[in-house]
Each structure stands twice: as structure tokens, then as C-alpha cells.
Amino acid sequence: MKLKPLGDRVLVKRSEEADDKSAGGIIIPDTAKEKPQRGKVIAAGPGGLKEDGARTPLEVKKGDEILFGKYSGTEIKLDGVEYLIMHESDILGILA
Fold it and tell me: Residue 22: is its pLDDT beyond 70?
């Protein structure tokens, strides 16, 4: 897969850790599970452009584990794998 995000966008692969049971022990079917709001940065763009033409570097880099908003990003499918493309501003934090 060869995809390089543009500007301040990042390519994220969502984590696969969805809970199978609720806190009360009820088994949740696949169709009712919420998608995880964490993932791994697969690729990052060069950074946003300032008015003077200089680049603002991104704070995230390839390999970072991140948290993002519930409805953040655009879902895409490449080579049969689902990814998200989102702006860096949609990222809530980096997991240490």
C-alpha cells in the first residue's frame, strides 16, 4: 500500500479491541458494538501550510498510538483493510 496523506492529515488504522460483553455480562453482537476510538498512525502528511508558505510540522508521527473523536475522519478501504484519514486537529491525544 502506497498512500501519503497531504497537508496536516494522518492515516490511522483503528484498533481491533471491541468489548464482547457489557459490564453486566450481556454478550454484545458484532452489529451493536461501538468502534474503538483509538488507533495507530500508519502515515502522516508533511504538515499544514502557514500563510507565508512555511510548513507547520505535525506532532504525531508514524507508529504513534492515538485517541480520536467518535465521528472523526473519513473511512476508506485499501487492499481490503479499513483505515481512517483525519486532520491532526481531530486527534485528542497520544497514548504514552
Answer: no
